[in-house]
Amino acid sequence: MTEKILQFGTGRFLRAFADCFIDEAISSNRYDGQIVMVASTPSGRLELFNHKNGRYHLWTRGVGPDGLINTLSSVNAVNRVMSANTQWDEVVRLGENPHLEAVISNTTEVGLSLLEPDDLSLPKSFPGRLCALLYGRAKYFDYSPSKGLVVLPCELIEQNGNLLRTLITKQATRWQLGDQFLNWLTHSVIFCNTLVDRIVPGLPEETELENTYLQLGYRDELLTVCEPYRLWAIEGDSELQEKLVFLQNAGGIVVTPDIEPYRIRKVRILNGGHSLFVPIGFLAGCETVLDSMNHPNVRRFVESLLRDEIGPALPVNLDTVPPYIDEVLQRWQNPYMHHRLTDIMMQSTIKLRHRVVPTVVDYYDQHPDGPAPKLISLGFAGWFYSMRGFRNADEVHSHSSSYPFPDDYQEDFNQRWPFDKLLLRKFVDSILSDEDYWGTSLTVFPGFVETVHRYLQTIINDGVAPLLNDT
Question: pTM for the whole thing?
Answer without folding.
Answer: 0.88
